[in-house]
Fold UDP-glucose 6-dehydrogenase.
Amino acid sequence: MFVRRIAVVGTGYVGLTTGACLASLGHRVVCADVDEVKIARLRAGRVGILEPGLAELVAEGLAAGRLEFVLGARNAVFDSEVMFLCVPTPMGVDGAANLAAVESVVAEVGELLPQGCVVVNKSTVPVGTAARVGSLLNRPDVAVVSNPEFLREGSAVADFLNPDRIVVGCDAQDAAERVAALYAKLGAPTVLTDAASAEMVKYAANCFLAMKLSYVNAVAELCERLGANVIDVTEGMGYDRRIGASFLQPGPGWGGSCLPKDTHALSQVAGSVGFDFPLLQATIDTNARQRHRVVQKVREAVGGSLAGARVGLLGLTFKAGTDDLRDSPALAVADLLREQGARLTAFDPGVREGLSDVTVVTDPYEVARGADAIVLLTEWPEFRSLDWNRVTELMAGDTIVDTRNHLDRDALDRAGLCWRGVGVSGSPRLDAVREVVS
Ligand SMILES: NC(=O)c1ccc[n+]([C@@H]2O[C@H](COP(=O)([O-])OP(=O)(O)OC[C@H]3O[C@@H](n4cnc5c(N)ncnc54)[C@H](O)[C@@H]3O)[C@@H](O)[C@H]2O)c1
Ligand SMILES: O=c1ccn([C@@H]2O[C@H](COP(=O)(O)OP(=O)(O)O[C@H]3O[C@H](CO)[C@@H](O)[C@H](O)[C@H]3O)[C@@H](O)[C@H]2O)c(=O)[nH]1
């Protein structure tokens, strides 16, 4: 079933991906944003974010006349049968999700929505928001549906078009079915439920992922203390289908625009109903500790004091494959290093703009020049193939702190560099045994 006209409000990672992908599925989509520059750019077919395949889908949609960009939600909803809300829900001062953008769109378009329109909330919002939006709208003919989005940045289009599942929640069955039908072509398992449960799925999933990562980061720390090797430990765990191999990679802590704010939001919501959730709090606290562990390793690498030390950073984004710096653990580590007196130079393939207090260079080898230590913070594949002999020549020191266990330790050894990973120091080298076994 094709809908004649869908409005998508917000053209960020989620909104633009949703709009372009729904258009590619055959729907007619009008995307709106408050950002004039963004809208002008999108009308010209230019996508301002790094997302594989997105620019192509936008170009196709524009050329086919199925995708349109307008300024302001009020200019998108005329004649729409469905309106998607894809606006930000950032962390507020108390950790709760800030719903100002959702509420402002509802106030802006409430009276303009055509009779029988369905409002679909794709933004990540606390349980009860669909009900709240319904009462703000005060339109008995307009149903409010929760349809959380699970795409990851860096693979947004692929995730949207090949989802593990679609979740649609509404207390009115026919509205839920109308929304689920928009995705029919994707053939994904679909969970139809009430609005509160759909809203809860999103937080429960993100917080579970965060908990898995905090667990694995804690296991890595323990491995270091006990002389075990976390790379082999997680491989051994991951083959267990009940655990699974993904989200078992230790790192400098989890970040990005979602996991940090969503863990805090669920924690705040739990507190608001008097529910003590120590598991979630420990997940957050373990993550906060992680960045201090990285700084400790760098401090050791430069001989005990960061004051005046030159430290090169490989990677600034919160993970590879994105240009998004929101809540990046790399930036948090950079802040701590700087506070302790380090002078920083950074390279990231996705970041070209300068940052205050960190010199951003466009050549990765510039990071090595005169560096007392280098710290890899983001797992960009190109870092693996750096010329380590050249790095050795350029550096003043000899240690690479690899917070993602991403680099080829032997290649660094051969170049005379000292590799310091996560959860592996003190463990024996089992590569020879591994070769015999395989
Ligand atoms: N980024 C992700 O990977 C991801 C994945 C799943 C869910 N989410 C959730 O989706 C929501 C949006 O996230 P995002 O990363 O796409 O945000 P974003 O910041 O990239 O984009 C939001 C867009 O909304 C626009 N906007 C703000 N107020 C508006 C208004 N009143 N009218 C029209 N446009 C307005 C902004 O200008 C911006 O372009 C959040 O709730 C987030 O938690 C994000
Ligand atoms: O094994 C791993 C996997 C991830 N990370 C880190 O965890 C963070 C989050 O990574 P990821 O989940 O891939 O990033 P997002 O694009 O923020 O996606 C998450 O947040 C989105 C917004 O809610 C959800 O839609 C996605 O399902 C959810 O994975 C990043 O800092 C990663 O470096 C690790 O350290 N080790």
Summary: The first strand starts at residue 6 and ends at 9. The mean pLDDT is 95. The domain at 208-420 is CATH 3.40.50.720 (Rossmann fold). The chain has two domains: 6-193, 208-420.
